[in-house]
Amino acid sequence: MDDHDRGLAFDLAKIIGRRGALGLLGGAVLAGAVACAAGDNSGTAAASGDQTRSSGGAAAEEIPDETAGPYPGDGSNGPNALTQSGVVREDIRASFGSASGVAEGIPLNIELTVQKDGAAFAGAAVYLWHCDREGRYSMYSEGVTGENYLRGVQEADENGIVRFTSIFPGAYAGRWPHIHFEVYGSLNEATTAAESVKVTQLAFPEDVCTTVYATSGYEQSVTNLANSSLESDNVFGDGYQTQLATMSGDLTAGYTAKLDVPLT
Fold it and tell me: Among 24, 34, 39, 242, which one has the highest count of C-beta atoms within 10 angstroms of its own C-beta?
């Protein structure tokens, strides 16, 4: 599958933006700074899946900007799900509109708590999407170009919380298991494909991935997971503490992934 990359210039901007302490004093310093950022393994301590959730009223470190990848479905790279009737929904397992496919897999609930300067970002909207059990992206990948499942928009409640019902995504070659999402200032801005205020990704802890991928239907994910790591991933490799989901649940009842999304 295509690498989720918009090119060197884009990646350099993201690396520098998420690690604001990189002082740029010329071309030589820039090269050294990027090399250091690419080798940052500061997220290792969070690899077990534990995550400190920020307390109300205290502004936490802002979640980093990341590439939306080549399959956003937000109109920036081909098809646009955001302006389609039916995209605002909590359960994203089935396609909507004229499409009728349903994504199969281990049940997954996703809960994001969006914060702005330490307070709940009530009224914000989140557009969330991810690949299916086979590692395919609806609207783009061969076999599912006519589907739009595993994509949806939700408005944050008074506590800044948005929830989605989905399936656990598969792992495909070249990437650690993840979910993409964009935050918009309002539901209207999201559904008119206005400019988002944040584009980022959620990562899954390895132990849960290993358990899920041992089940039927996820066979190809076993090899892909074994050939990748959070530390070597081209998105999470420079630090993933603020992006690693807190997980609960099991294979029978399904899993819940929770993540705080601090913005400034």
Answer: 242
Would strands 198-203 and 178-184 be described as parallel, antiparallel, or unpaired? Answer: antiparallel
Residues 6+ apart with CB under 8 A from 102: 93, 94, 95, 149
Residues 6+ apart with CB under 8 A from 187: 88, 123, 125, 153, 155
The CA angle 66-93-143, to the nearest 5 degrees, is 80
Rounded to the nearest 5°, which phi and psi values hold at 145?
-65, -25
CB within 8 A of 175, min separation 6: which ones? 4, 228, 233, 234, 235
Would you give the distance in Å from CA 112 to the centre of its chain?
11
Residue ranges of domains in the chain:
8-263
Count the residues in the chain: 264
Strands 254-263 and 161-167: unpaired
Instruction: Kindly state the tokens that stand for 91.
Output: 């359960």
CATH node for 8-263 = 2.60.130.10
φ and ψ at 138, to 5 degrees?
-60, 150
Query: Which three-class secondary structure state does DSSP give residue 6?
Result: coil
pTM equals 0.80
